[in-house]
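Exercise 7.
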Amino acid sequence: MQELIVIATLSARPGHEAVIKAAVERIVPPTRAEDGCIRYDPHVDLEHDGRYVIVEAWRDAEAHQRHLATPHFLELVKTIDGLADIQILKLNEMR
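Solution. The predicted structure, written as tokens, is:
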């Protein structure tokens, strides 16, 4: 098993910055409580208003897959649908 790092970038479309920020803030506590979640840290891009970057670390890819099926993640997806551009990077440490 190799730790999985995920970098999720959510760029709010104009006028939806507050909705995206609130949705990101809501998902943090339940995600951090998940089995297999090592790190789940939201950040604000200092050079781009409305861009939020979440740095995640998961015990393994399976833990992340379970996260994607949780009610709080599905609610995030529903809330931000069409309101943000999303980029997801999935990484493993180079060895």
